[in-house]
From TrEMBL:
The keyword Cytoplasm does not apply. The keyword Transmembrane helix does not apply. Belongs to the class-III pyridoxal-phosphate-dependent aminotransferase family. Transmembrane segments: none annotated. This is Glutamate-1-semialdehyde 2,1-aminomutase. One of its GO terms (molecular function) is transaminase activity. It holds the Pfam family Aminotran_3. Gene3D superfamilies: Aspartate Aminotransferase, domain 1, Type I PLP-dependent aspartate aminotransferase-like (Major domain). It comes from the Eukaryota. Its cofactor is pyridoxal 5'-phosphate. Keywords: Pyridoxal phosphate.
Length: 413
């Protein structure tokens, strides 16, 4: 398309960098989720809410690294803590005080987490949580949901996803469908050890789980003796205790990731004492769980600083309110002007969908390149995630640019 051709000719340095990268990386990158067709932009640096690419273009970043970049590109409070932390050693290979302070803070925030263990990514946390749930119940099957995403080896997008799978015995159920899910789960009731669910489908399109649906999973898990896991890797930022605290639904286990490492690689899984005590090294038959970087000192210090000073109840409320009003304003204009777009999501995590049944790919594509031309960076699939470096003015500017881009798409397709 013309939009793609103009993108290609405007970004010669990115194209060159990309061609070079394909010589050592399959597809030129190491994260499939950030690939852009026909080739991705190479970003040189970030500043506040902006990113600057290798051709010198500046964009306001509304991807925020798929929700993990909640602090923006630079944050003075984190920077100071990390620099001070550097003086105490890169790696210590031992128990540290920031590690137990961070665990204590997270356990006090999430009602389901009596005890917690750290890992290095959301994917790893989910693999560990699922394995723990199966071990605890002595069962084999894992219930997951259509459109669910629990990490690079744990996604359930269906046939066109091309997902790499770990050898779990998955039972895939329809999200937000109480009757459909009930009948499948009852069929395998005695074999199901774990039910894992996102309180809002994230990568699956920012589709909030209905409270009644999530509550029905709570009741069903208890009834059949399965471990219910809430994957709050994204939704943990919707309130100080994640979506579970907002809804008052307490799973048996919870997984976290992304922003709780204060910008560093992070994952965590935790839950009821009876389950998590399996890892208590004082017990004779405890499960061994290692991980060289599980308690990396810089991650612990950055994470602790973030929860103490940045991820406060007030800051999270403000950011989520900003996202709620962006979504409401946009959907109002989309409706009034019959523009073929809709924004779904909760708080500061949202997704723009192209709603016309025809030319779906072209519509979202054109929209994406229109926004890039105006200096706004969203995920090519439509994800829009806010961060603390953004001002109200940035978000208002984005709102206007989205409306203009949507009008442009409507008139040209
Ligand atoms: N779970 C959810 C809900 C996610 O959104 C993600 C990442 O996007 C993950 C798990 C995986 O986390 P990570 O990318 O840190 O492995």
């Amino acid at each position: 398309s013309a939009a793609r051709r103009s993108y290609a000719s405007n970004n010669p340095n990115s194209l060159k960098a990309y061609e070079q990268a394909t010589e050592s990386l399959p597809g030129g990158g190491t994260r499939s989720s950030i690939f852009i067709h026909p080739f991705p932009l190479f970003i040189e640096r970030g500043d506040g809410s902006e990113i600057i690419d290798v051709d010198g273009h500046k964009y306001l970043d509304f991807v925020s690294d798929f929700t993990s970049g909640i602090y923006g590109k630079t944050n003075p409070v984190l920077k100071k803590a990390i620099i001070e932390g550097l003086d105490n050693g890169l790696q210590l290979g031992a128990h540290t005080l920031p590690e137990s302070s961070l665990s204590s803070e997270l356990c006090s925030r999430f009602p389901s987490m009596h005890l917690i263990r750290f890992a290095n990514s959301g994917t790893e946390a989910n693999i560990l949580a699922i394995s723990t749930g199966l071990h605890y119940t002595g069962r084999k099957k894992v219930v997951v949901f259509e459109g669910g995403y629990h990490g690079s080896v744990l996604s359930h997008f269906g046939e066109d996803g091309g997902d790499l799978k770990v050898p779990y015995d998955f039972v895939v159920c329809p999200y937000n469908d109480i009757t459909g899910t009930n009948s499948i789960i009852r069929k395998y009731a005695e074999e199901i050890g774990v039910i894992i669910v996102e309180p809002m489908l994230g990568a699956g399109g920012c589709i909030p789980g209905n409270p009644e649906f999530l509550q029905s999973l709570r009741e069903l898990s208890t009834e059949i003796g399965a471990v219910l896991i809430f994957d709050e890797v994204q939704t943990a930022r919707l309130s100080i205790g994640g979506r579970q605290k907002i809804l008052g639904i307490t799973p048996d286990m919870t997984t976290l990731g992304k922003f709780f490492g204060g910008g560093f690689a992070f994952g965590a899984f935790g839950g009821k004492k009876a389950i998590m005590s399996l890892f208590d090294a004082r017990q004779p038959n405890s499960i061994s769980h290692g991980g060289t970087f599980n308690n990396s000192p810089l991650t612990m210090i950055a994470g602790l600083t973030a929860v103490q000073h940045i991820l406060t109840e007030e800051n999270l409320r403000n950011l989520n309110e900003l996202g709620d009003s962006l979504r409401e304003n946009l959907n109002k204009v989309f409706d009034e002007e019959e523009l073929p777009f809709k924004m779904t999501g909760l708080g500061s995590i949202n997704q723009l969908h192209y709603t016309s049944p025809s030319q779906k790919r072209e519509g979202l594509d054109l929209f994406f390149f229109c926004l890039l031309d105006r200096g706004y960076w969203i995920a090519q699939r439509g994800l829009v995630s806010l961060n603390f470096a953004m001002t109200n003015k940035d978000v208002k500017g984005f709102e206007n640019a989205v409306i203009e881009a949507a009008r442009g798409v409507k008139s040209s397709l």
